[in-house]
Write a structure and sequence with these properties.
The protein is an alpha/beta fold and 363 residues long. 40% of the residues lie in helices and 19% in strands. The chain has a five-stranded parallel beta sheet. Strands 4-3-5-6 form a four-stranded parallel beta sheet, sandwiched between helices. A two-stranded antiparallel sheet has the order 10-11. Helix 2 runs parallel beside helix 13 (222-238), helix 8 (118-127) packs parallel to helix 9 (144-157) and helix 9 packs across helix 14 (257-266).
């Protein structure tokens, strides 16, 4: 408890913000990649405490938000089948597809269950040999190792009734996509500490060098966040563009090499469509040949589903840091947590949900 309290100490946080205030001489636009960081920033009001010169924009680091509409509709089609028990984390149940969501499928009689681990889904498959059990494997690199292990365990157990609908996405390709856009406003990145705890940050120096932007690995407590902002601003004011680690109590440059090994065994890179953003080359994972029998998309033949996003939702622009949620005409009117048009209003890590929850009416 004392350890957590230290990183929420208001006096220490104000001290770092004062350092930023004394250092900054011009306007800078920084992007926090992770939706968890977005919620922490708004929860503690850090964006309102920072000098006016510092603008924070919100990145695509919410796995629920960027899971493509096509994959949501594929999940709905699979979940509606009578022989299927469809398992997922709770956040996914309210994410809107083209016509409905997983809650609607469950209300109509579909066997949709919330689990807290993919290994729970493996256990359900063991207990229900007469059913096909599917786990919706979403997430960034953080959730990849546990999802990979569920497939490895299912293979070891000889389970023929377990499969995964894979919607994994990776952070570095998304950073490339954002920074290479002519419309990009991002001048510095706060990298997601939990992703880096798995993958390390050895992939980021080439990004910092290519696009001339500092990247600072940052945690999720108030002191972590303002320290990350301070280190980013200090680099920008100095004209340097390096990768720094402001979360060294958790993250190393190499990351968790054992976790990376299991990821490399079970998954391989693939092109992946991001909801609201579009296709980003080599930005996702798919199952390797060794584990292709566990691919739910192939097992249930749902690869041909095509969809179209709501014309009123600007989630893609929000996820790229081009606009704030309050700049969406539907925000708080047509689009609310009870009647969401897009995943950014549903997810516990979505930027729109954060703005709505904390009563923000301005960016």
């Amino acid at each position: 408890m004392e350890f957590t309290t230290e990183f929420r100490d208001a006096h220490l946080v104000r001290g770092v913000i004062e350092k930023i205030r004394r250092r900054v001489t011009r306007s800078w636009v920084l992007m926090e990649i992770c939706g968890g960081q977005t919620h922490a920033i708004l929860h503690y009001g850090l964006d309102q405490l920072l000098p006016a010169e510092i603008e924070l924009v919100h990145g695509p680091g919410c796995p629920v938000c960027v899971t493509s509409l096509e994959l949501i509709d594929k999940a709905l089609a699979i979940a509606a089948r009578p022989e299927v028990i469809f398992t997922s984390y709770g956040d996914m149940l309210r994410v809107p597809g083209s016509q409905r969501d997983l809650f609607s499928v469950r209300a109509a009689g579909g066997k949709v269950r919330v689990v807290y681990s993919p290994l729970d889904a493996v256990k359900i498959a063991q207990e229900n040999p007469d059913k096909q059990v599917v786990f919706f494997a979403i997430g960034f690199e953080t959730t990849g190792p546990s999802n990979a292990m569920s497939v490895v365990q299912a293979k070891m157990l000889g389970l023929k009734n377990y499969s995964v609908l894979v919607s994994h996405v990776c952070v570095p390709p998304a950073m490339h996509a954002i920074l290479s856009s002519p419309a990009s406003r991002v001048q510095g990145f706060l990298a997601a500490g939990h992703v880096c705890s798995v993958m390390g940050y050895w992939q980021y120096p080439s990004i910092a060098e290519k696009y001339r932007v500092p990247v600072v690995v940052t945690g999720f407590e108030p002191l972590d966040l303002v320290q990350g902002i301070w280190m980013t601003v200090d680099q920008l004011e100095s004209g340097t563009c390096e990768v720094q680690n402001a979360y060294s109590r958790v993250v190393s440059r190499e990351g968790n090499t054992a976790a990376q090994a299991i990821l490399n065994r079970v998954f391989e890179p693939c092109d992946r469509k991001w909801r609201g953003i579009g296709m980003i080359p080599q930005s996702g994972w798919q199952l390797t040949t060794e584990f292709s029998d566990f691919d739910a998309e192939k097992r249930f033949d749902v690869g041909s589903i095509q969809t179209q996003e709501s014309p009123y939702c600007i989630a893609g622009e929000i996820l790229q840091g081009l606009k704030k949620p309050t700049q969406c005409p539907a925000y708080g009117k047509l689009c609310t947590p009870d009647t969401p048009l897009g995943a950014t209003m549903v997810s516990s890590e979505g930027a729109c949900a954060a703005y709505y929850r904390y009563g923000r009416t301005e960016g």
